[in-house]
Here is the input.
Amino acid sequence: MMNLALVGLTGSRRWLDVPLLEDTLYLVWHDALQIGYDGIELIHGDAQDGADAMGDAWAVRNNIPRRRRPADWEGPCGPECQPGHRRKKRNGRTYCPLAGHRRNQLIIDERPVLLVAAQVNNSTGTADCMRRAKTAGIPVHRITV
Here is the structure.
């Protein structure tokens, strides 16, 4: 059985710096090997663009196992949601604006050893995940452009 370091990735959908993100992930992988892990496993929120998509593509190219945890935007609300808070999309369907926060907590609850945060202009979703990681005692490695 392999001893993999679970590494979280959070980031803005507007993240564009592929080399910086990939270099950071390579360094994290290298550091995990140096301290005795057999490799890393990447967990992220599965956004179809930005840092999540770039990190997922990097993991695929490098045969890094990954856990994708997409937010359930159109699904049911959680107990923390206030009545009437759902928002309408252009297509008329509604979504829960707190789904991303619930997804961030699910990622943190899986206890990654480190959270890599690729933040653009203090993006709120990334900031939320970083805050949750710090509260849980998980180190955060923040990169910015």
